[in-house]
Structure formats: structure tokens, C-alpha cells
Amino acid sequence: GDLPPVTGSAMERYRAIQSDLKIVEVDGVGVLPPSSTVALRERKPVSGRDAAALLQRSLKDAGIEAYPALLTSPKGPIVMSGFPSISPFKRVVVAVKAKDVMNDAQNCATSSLLARGPLCSVADHGFVFVDPMCKTCRFGELPPDLMGGTALLVGMRNPRFVSVGVGHPETNLVVTHYEMSSTGVGNVSGGVSVQVIGQSASTFRKTLLELPPDADISDFIQGHLRFEDKQVGFRSGSSENVRDLSKPLTLSASTELKNVKVDYDTFSFALADAMGPSLPGAYRQVRQFPRVLDAPARWDTTLRLELPAGYRVLAPEPLDLSWGGISY
After folding, report:
1. Which pLDDT value is given to residue 30?
2. Across the beta sheet with 232-240, what order do the strands follow?
3. Contact 180, 308 (CB under 8 A)
4. Which residue has the higher pLDDT, 199 or 167?
5. Tell me, what's the pLDDT at 191?
6. Is the confidence at residue 105, as pLDDT, over 50?
7. pLDDT: is 16 or 271 the higher one?
8. Are 308 and 184 in contact (CB under 8 A)?
């Protein structure tokens, strides 16, 4: 039936449908019977299938090539070559032709990694997938449990299966910068700024949206940056851009390094204590699991330390290792 038309850019239409509909967040293609126009107007619960159908129609009305896409569960066993899975379809999303929604002003080749979006990493089939049910995902981004499987594109003359990739490390990026200073007696303190995009940002936002905007999130930052490491204390933690998905999620806090050794006119500390454990060190206790990360990811961590007058730095030799797809 007739519904008030959704207008604006592809992103605006995507967000409008998310805000206008009361979507039941349950996996599956059925979940609820098809909703009537009256039910949609009265904001009665609707399935993700109906939300995807409305989004697809809205994008098509705007001249954008888009099709309903039925996603299989990537965790389902493969039965034979050419068959995606014996698992049922897990969710209905929208497959959107990336070239129709690319922002001409965005230059993926020259933009910083934090400024690049999912549209800068498109599979060979040319489609990105949009999930109306995921309110913390960027346009063209799927939750990790929906990635790595297969999608059946329908609504076209020749329906076909296409792969749903697991993403690229640069689209799931955490950039951490410590800005610290020291006194002659070995007190090392300052602050940390963390910028996050991709799957980690989506996961963080789900938690932060449940907290008051002015909540102290020091423990949250401690847990996600340092795991079980307690060598740095975090205080006065805050967040920015929790609701604005067009910008990187930003976390900040005051910091103080605890494990500093002082000996007369010298003081020393381990870089791992100041900057956090390396990837192998952080996940040393979970090697028994077949998959540690939700998706390919990248962490960039830097430290700037201001020393008292007259002090010099004796730094260790840089270490460059690469094995099994992991570089350090």
C-alpha cells in the first residue's frame, strides 16, 4: 500500500527507515507475517525482511540499483561445491550497487584510513550490503556474524548467489595515541585518544548507547585497550561521536604509567607497559579457539613522551615480525 515517500540520499533513506520503523531484532527470514500499511503507519513491530523490502523500494525509487538479499549463515557446513550452505537463510538485507551511491567528493585513494568507509572496499561483484536491523553499522557494513557467508540476490531477472566477504583490516581500524610527559622523579602521566571505525566501533557503540552521555568510561577503555594489563591507570574517560556514525568513534582518558623503575638519575619502563600488549600477547590465552577476531582488523598505536630537560632516550631496537598472516 501507499506509505509517505522517504526522500534524500541513500544514507538518509537508510537512517529514516531505521528510525521510522519498530524492527524486531530476531534472526530469520519469516519472524513475523508481512506487515500491512496500517501496521507500518502505527509503528507496530515489523520484521527485518519488511524493513529491507521498504529500503530496497526506496532506493530503487531514487534510481539506485538495489535488490533484496537473503543471507546464509557463514557458520553453516558446506555440503558441496556450488551450494552455499545447508543452513537456513539468516536475514534479509539489501544489496546495493556501490557505484550508484559512491560520493564523488570522496577519494578513497587519498583519504586517511579513518576517513574511508565500507564503499572503499567493494567485492568484484560490485555490491555492498545494507542491514536495516543494525543501527550501529555504517552504510554498506554488516555485523560480523553475517559476514563470510553467501547472499542470494532476488528481484532480478536471473537471481544469483554472491559471496559476502569478511572485510579488510583497514575498514576495522583502531588508532590509539598516548600523549605523556615525565618528571625527573619518574612520574609518567598524560592522556590517551582512541579513534575507532568498523566492527569494533559498532560493538563499542552498542555498550556506550546504554550509558549516560556524561558517564565516566575509564573502566570501559581499560578493558578494551589493555585487556588484563593494569600497568596504566585510566581516569576521566569520555566519548565522542557515539551517535554520529559518519565520524570515527572517539574515546579519551587521562593516563598514568604505574610500573616505572627509578634509579638515581635514570628511570625506565617497558614499552609494552606504556602502549599495551602486542596482538600475540593479548590473545595468548585464547589460542584454543578457531577464530579470535570477528573480522580482519588493524591496530595502530603510537606514544609521544615529553622528557625533562637534560634527559635522553635509550630505546630498544625496532622489531618487525610476520607469520601466518599476522604482522607485528
Report:
1. 67
2. 232-240, 249-257, 188-196, 173-182, 298-306
3. no
4. 199
5. 93
6. no
7. 16
8. yes
Query: How many C-beta atoms surround the C-beta of residue 52 within 10 A?
Result: 26
Mean local confidence (pLDDT), 280-305: 69
- Bridge partner list, 292: none
Strand partners, 88: none
Q: Among residues of the chain, what percentage have pLDDT more than 90?
A: 19
Q: Tell me the mean pLDDT in the region 92-109.
A: 80
The length of the chain in residues reads: 328
Record the cell numbers describing residue 306, joined without a space. 615529553
Helices (H), 24-96: 37-41, 48-61
Contacts of 147 (CB under 8 A, 6+ apart): 74, 164, 165, 166, 167, 295
pLDDT in tens, 46-93: 888 888 988 999 899 889 999 999 988 766 555 555 555 555 788 899
Interhelix angle 10-20/48-61, rounded to 10 degrees, is: 150
* Ordered strands of the 66-72 beta sheet: 127-130, 89-97, 66-72, 150-153, 160-163
> What's the grid cell of residue 162?
554472491
In this prediction, residue 259 carries a pLDDT of 75
CB 271 within 8 A of CB 316: yes
- Whether 195 and 170 have beta carbons less than 8 Å apart is answered as no
Average pLDDT score, the chain: 81
Q: How far is CA 118 from CA 50, 101, 122, 128, 283, in A?
A: 24, 11, 7, 8, 27
Q: What are the cell numbers at 300?
A: 595502530
Q: Give me the residue label for grid cell 557494513.
A: 141
First to last CA, the chain: 56
CA 165 to CA 154: how far, in whole Å? 19
DSSP-derived pairing of the beta strands 22-23 and 45-46: parallel
Q: For the chain, how are helix, strand and coil distributed in percent, rounded to 5? A: 25, 25, 50
Residue 142 CB neighbours (<10 A): 28
User: Within its chain, how far is the Cα of 176 from the centroid?
Assistant: 15
